[in-house]
Amino acid sequence: MEQFDLSEARFRPVSELIETPIWVFSVANQGVQSSVRFPGAVDSKFTTEMSFSRPSNMPAMPTYRVMDSDGTIVDEKHAPTDVSDEEVLTWYKNMLTVNIMDLIMFEAQRQGRLSFYMVSAGEEGIAVGSATALSPDDVVFAQYREAGVLQQRGFTLQEFMSQLFSNKNDAGRGRNMPVHYGKAYPKQYTISSPLATQIPQATGAAYALKLQHLQNPNNPPSIVACYFGEGAASEGDFHAALNMAATRSCPVVFICRNNGYAISTPTLEQYRGDGIASRGIGYGIDTIRVDGNDIFAVREATKEARRMALADGGRPILIEAMSYRVSHHSTSDDSFAYRARVEVEDWKRRDNPIIRLRKWLENKGLWNEDLERDTRDEIRRTVLKEFSAAEREKKPPLREAFTDVYEELTEEAQEQMKELKRILETYPEEYDLREFEDGIKGL
Amino acid sequence: MSLLRTASHRLPRRVSVWQCRPYSAGPPTPSARLNLPIDYKATPLLHHTPSSLSMSPELPQNSTSKRLNLYQAINSALRTALSASDQVILFGEDVAFGGVFRCSVDLQTEFGSERVFNTPLTEQGIVGFAIGAAAQGLKPVAEIQFADYIFPAFDQIVNEAAKFRYREGSTGSNAGGLVIRTPCGAVGHGALYHSQSPESLFAHVPGVRVVIPRSPTQAKGLLLSAIFECNDPVIFMEPKILYRAAVEHVPNESYTIPLSKAEVLKPGKDLTIISYGQPLYHCSAAIAAAEKAMNGVEIELIDLRTIYPWDRQTVLNSVRKTGRAIVVHESMVNYGVGSEVAATIQDGAFLRLEAPVKRVAGWSTHTGLSYERFILPDVARIYDAIKQTLEY
Question: Which positions in chain A touch B119 (Cβ < 8 Å)?
């Protein structure tokens, strides 16, 4: 009965708006055939050779690059001609800004002025480069090491600092750990700590964008860009998301930052296949591996991925951007406990997205030592100015501990706020409310 | 899991067979006067005639009605929702052909495969997908085939859906449009993985609402409320034993029943029984037997309807009046909904209490196939609790 019902369902009319492949199967394997009729693999051919497919026999997926580590364009066909020199300079400054902010904030955490921090060192090219290919209406779901995406999309230093110091100007109302940024427009969903949870959410959001564009063509065709590390790709949510994105043809570009480590775990203990890229193929997703230290390669791949994701009614694309996590995992991590200092120094010296773009700029006569020094000084001054302004701001009012759990405050929450207020008033010497906006009245 | 799940597809088709004579629940003993099969055709908890609908002020007055069972009422609510807004989408495992419990029957044909569709078999994917769609402004109604299989999505529900609005703060993004529907509760032979009622696990999580209807009329009103009037994520748990068993008149027009509002089903002055979902029918039968056996006793019956955030005022008002309370639910007694309700009563009606608050609930074990009737609360256990509480 079940079989009958299911197959009958396949003959039901489907929407003309979204092409869902409908396979119609007859009795499997009648007579002599070269290809199978099993519903699970319709294009498979029969073979009399008993041979296991072995990953070790397959070539590793190549890594796309546009310029080499000297900043020289490898194949002039792919020279970045679609963008002005001025624009490339803004990318460079955005990478530099994130890098300088990272150095200052990492140090600030070491001084105890910040509870936590995570730098992007070595991965600024992936973040800024991919973001240059997005439209403001595109939606971003990130993991936590993508400050460059926000920087490129107009997040201000004041917004960064307000979040890091969880002061009253923080969009997250002082509720999240540092580096859990979010923005209403261009839409960047607030980062959450659980790894990979954003990947199926990105798939669902992409489906919504596609449906809403179909229902109302005035809605601009937009994609979701979803970022995650190679460690997060081991979570079940990665599997769920890529499979759902493929079966529902969602316009989402998955961007994996493969930086070699998930905290202390090297990729050899993370997976045994050909990185993350090889899995995209398994899900039926068009996939490319790029050199993440090459901002031009990242940009071009993302731009093309965005175009493909919107073509023919929509589909997901996977980009695996290779890089190296130059920094510690976070301020709570000393990475020299599990990798050699010399390895890190080697990467810092040998290859780096910022230095590579700087070489390209210098080769074109657009940059020099003086400009570099002046720009660094200027960025550093601005960061420090916003830093001390944000550090001096009050925390949000105490009521924000209870609001936004539900759309409306529940009766239970109102009672608990009253009870907290009574406690604070009864034991004023036990609590310091000075740093909170409106003190006790903020409750 | 997959083997059992495949077998489970056959469950609904046998409902009509085991409804009268549950396999493991067994036939009543010849002399039983309490643990008799629930007679859904005669229970006072259902609207057997259109005239009783007008007695409920929450329901639309002067609406035409039709006799529907619970799955048909869910189907009617989903059809109403899909018609009312093109932002409503419906998806889950095997939803397209009508669902393994027939709740989504014909909806793909009517509303198209872009709005009603199957997903791959992945609960964490289904809920994650729904959160993303809700954040972008859709009103996704996601189905988890059995509440027993919601646990792979626990992280997405607890860490993501529930906390979404809170962590977004002033960006204003939220996943409030999200509704997760899932069949729950025992069916007579569901054993370990087709019987569970995990409501208390979600009631421990601020940010989600947990709703369990007891009847077709209630299911339609509460589900439409969850989809259109509630801008918070809702876990909507449907007692699957009622899908075909509970039949009543359901108003044809669209209507909503407020969330977080309990309903006093039967007034009384001596004892309050608080329950929700299918066990309400057992409570009703036990109350009838007790009131008959004990002259002049009047017992109040309250349907919680929303498990969290719950209507504490209605419960406290009742217990302050009666001075005695029993909480009844199918899921295990340890850390169950009864614990929260009993503690709240102790805190809010201490001086009025004349007996300890009793919890009649599943024993703290698993629903072993052969033992279901000994594990879950039945009429005899509720009757006994009434007797003990009144005689305390």
Answer: 244, 247-248
